[in-house]
Amino acid sequence: MTSLVLTLTETLRYRGAVGQWSWVMHRLTGLGVLFFLILHVIDTSWAVFYPELYVRAIASYQSPLFTLGEFGLVFAVVYHAYNGLRIIVFDYKPQWWRHQREAAKWVVVCTFVTLIPVFLVMFNHVLNYYGENPQVLGLDKVLLEQIPFAVGMVVALVIGVFASFVYGMLTGGKDEATRHTESRLERFWWSYMRISGLLIIPLVFGHLAMMHLIQGVFDITARNYGAVGSIFSQVGINETGTSVEFVADRWNTFVAGVAIWRLYDFGLLTLAVVHGFNGLRYVFTDYTMNNPVLRRGLVYTCIIGAAILLAVGISALLGTIPQTSIEMAEEAARNLYP
Length: 338
Prior knowledge:
12 helices, 1% strand, 2 strands, mainly alpha
């Protein structure tokens, strides 16, 4: 905790340290994207397993609070991606390190050049939706919907720290035998973060383009509005106007016998979840070096979180959405605003 406070105070005291601010922003944006990823994967799985819950989740996304959060999310994704590219380039070309200050500035410039037209398109979606005076969930209901996620995160943390405590009791806290293995693992994870980062960028930018620009989050519940890419197959155009049918239409789109959006989402899911939780592990271990039990417990928490999220996401992608689920979603939508 002392090192975390020191990082914050020294960051605020720095003058002209572009590299320091880039480091802080990279971590903050990464944490923000990971937090949304956790919500998004679990929420989307509900389209398969709990259609009524998915209807409520999308209603929360269409509330003013999440509308503002959507702009923050897109900023975080774009900045994190560009700054990640900067890190990758300098990692593989250390002789260019003398240009890192200029590169950090260019990251900011590219971020804002990208976001200006993106935000204009997103803002147009917002104006069109709220201009129709739609019913929206109140802030109290939106916040209550997030409580299960907070509880789940706390439970994962408790389990991780408890497992670390038990491990320490059984081994006497001696980790020397694993240091060589950990060193090799760290080299692997260093490479993974760079390679996965490159692979994620086109996937996540494509997802943002489809779900925030070509379509907006408000179009998910638009009646007779087809999911992006569904024009390539005969899957329908969301006749019920429910978020569950939207997901069904998207995932049931086949091109040359391939469920292209399931495959696309599988690639994005696996790469982003492992990348995100490993990044979280870096953050945790940086600030717990003097507390082996807590440090190990937080690492276990990251492993638990990644494993659960992958299991939930992959199970949903392999699942089916029958007509009965769409009918349940219709009923839930009718009862959403009493």
